[in-house]
Specification:
Blueprint lengths: L3 H24 L9 E8 L2 E9 L6 E3 L6 E6 L1 E5 L5 E4 L5 E2 L5 E2 L5 E6 L7 E2 L2 E2 L2 H6 L12 E2 L17 E4 L4 E6 L4 E8 L1 E4 L6 E4 L2 E3 L7 E3 L1 E6 L1 E3 L5 H37 L1
Antiparallel strand pairs: 1-2, 3-21, 4-20, 5-6, 5-9, 5-16, 6-18, 7-8, 9-12, 9-15, 10-11, 13-14, 14-15, 16-19, 17-18
């Protein structure tokens, strides 16, 4: 026989947790790069528990960034960041800028990773170009097709004020390539390709800090991501406001019902104690 009081207590607990997490989604509707939390529940004899706590890996809308140096990924995958200790994390938020030394970095100072290109736009592995088909199909091992990623650098030559000593401007194009521009934009030279990495099961990535993830055994090893990288934009939150509002109302109603049931059971227990003592 099910205990209605225990069921109500369990329902109260899970409903409060549900309200809390939906509230987090709604608070972050306009937070750039935020990944919506999604939940499933597992029922048991006297209630339910949260079975999974997953992130929505769907695309967020684009928005003008804070700088032309920001980038937006439209497609599947993540940008790659490396800290000074060599630790790798993955993010969708391309709110990046070049620092005073010309290194392309995230807002928290981690170096954005990319691949060095030759003047034909081919990815270089040492002194040799990498075949484009092999690059996509070969598993990641320190870089797609075993090509190591590198920090993206656009230092300014103090003698002439130009990037890398010869470019007046730079531009990120749709294929994620950073071009150096000279002669008033008439000359465009490919310099780096921004690294975009994906996973067979990206929902199982572990979030180590807001919007930054690391691989896990369940996520699988990194593979080459696919999508367009555009400059001057960033990705907004992918929270579905209407759906989360509906879930919030449902969770609140469920919580209020559980609270009322617990209150009623307490009152019945109090009445029973008074009858027994009278």
């Amino acid at each position: 026989m099910r205990d209605a009081f225990i069921t109500a207590l369990n329902t109260q607990k899970i409903s409060a947790e549900w309200v809390k997490n939906i509230s987090e989604n709604l608070i972050n509707v306009y937070t750039p790069g935020y990944r919506e939390k999604k939940f499933t529940f597992k029922t048991f004899l006297d209630g339910s528990i949260v079975e999974t706590d997953l992130r929505n890996i769907g695309q967020g809308k684009s928005s003008p960034g804070t700088s032309d140096e920001n980038i937006f990924l439209e497609g599947s995958g993540y940008f790659v960041l490396r800290n000074d200790q060599g630790r790798i994390v993955y993010t969708r938020l391309g709110e990046f800028k070049f620092d005073g030394e010309g290194v392309y970095r995230s807002s928290d100072g981690q170096a954005v990773q990319g691949y060095i290109l030759n003047d034909k736009g081919e990815i270089m592995n040492g002194a040799k170009p990498v075949d484009a088909e092999s690059f996509i199909d070969t598993p990641f091992d320190g870089g797609a097709a075993s090509v190591p990623t590198t920090n993206i650098k656009m230092w300014i030559d103090p003698s002439n004020g130009k990037y890398l000593g010869k470019y007046e401007e730079f531009e990120f194009k749709d294929d994620g390539i950073l071009y150096g521009k000279a002669d008033g934009g008439k000359v465009m030279t490919p310099l780096y390709k921004v690294a975009v990495i994906n996973f067979h099961n990206p929902q199982e990535l572990f979030e180590v800090s807001d919007g930054q993830f690391i691989e896990t055994a369940n996520s699988g090893k990194p593979v080459v991501g696919r999508g367009e990288v555009r400059g001057g934009l960033i990705e907004l939150s992918n929270v579905d406001f209407d759906t989360n509002t509906a879930y919030y109302q449902q969770a609140q109603m469920q919580l209020e019902l559980a609270n009322q049931l617990i209150k009623s059971h307490k009152q019945l227990l109090q009445n029973a104690i008074e009858l027994m003592s009278s």
